[in-house]
Structures are given as structure tokens and as C-alpha cells.
Amino acid sequence: MSFSLHVSNLSPEQVAFSYSAAHEAMMALHVFHDSKHHPLHIQWVINARKNINPALKQEIDAFSFLFKRPVVTFWALQGAFCLPII
After folding, report:
1. How far, CA to CA in Å, does 61 sit from each of 8, 9, 75, 80?
2. Is residue 8 part of a domain?
3. What percent of the chain clears pLDDT 70, i.e. is strictly above it?
4. HSE (CB half, 13 Å, CA atoms) of 16?
5. Does residue 86 form part of some domain?
6. Is residue 39 part of a domain?
7. What 8-state DSSP symbol labels residue 8?
């Protein structure tokens, strides 16, 4: 599966990428749930798991199906295609 994004008819002012708080939260939950694949964040996960409210931990576990796999983003797809901006 692939897609093309043509931005050649747009001015640079019309093209923007921004931060997503929702995406950051999903990525943090993914790392919290599956720290063995994220060794740089193990200390953060250990501290977070020590300090988390048990009820919140149950909620995270209940909804873990949403973030067990990494969330695919535009940036993760960069290697699959190239976007020339003219």
C-alpha cells in the first residue's frame, strides 16, 4: 500500500507539520506497556510504574490493545517514499 502527496502547487507557507499531543500520549503509553523494546526509556518506565495509581494501571492495561503496536505516523513512512517539495 502506498500513497502520494503532491505539494508542488502549494507555496511553502501552505505546507506545515505540527506536534500532536495525542500522538505523544499514545507513544508514551506504548513505551510504558512494552518497555523491553525501548531500552533508553527503561528508567522512566520503572519510575512511572512505581508511582502510578493502581486504578490508572488497570485502565492502561484494559486499553492496551490500542497501543500494543507502535502508532504509524507520517514520519515512520519516510523511508518508503520521498516527498519532493518544489
Report:
1. 44, 46, 27, 32
2. no
3. 73
4. 5
5. no
6. yes
7. T
Lookup: cell for 23? 500522538
Torsion (CA) 73, 74, 75, 81 in degrees, nearest 10: 130
Instruction: Tell me if 29 is assigned to some domain.
Output: yes
**Set of cell numbers at residue 9:** 502547487
One-letter amino acid identity for 57? K
CB 30 within 8 A of CB 68: yes
Give the whole-angstrom CA distance, residue 19 versus residue 86. Answer: 23
Per-block average pLDDT, block size 10, for the chain (86 residues)?
Answer: 69 75 85 87 93 92 80 55 49
Lookup result for grid cell 505523544: 24
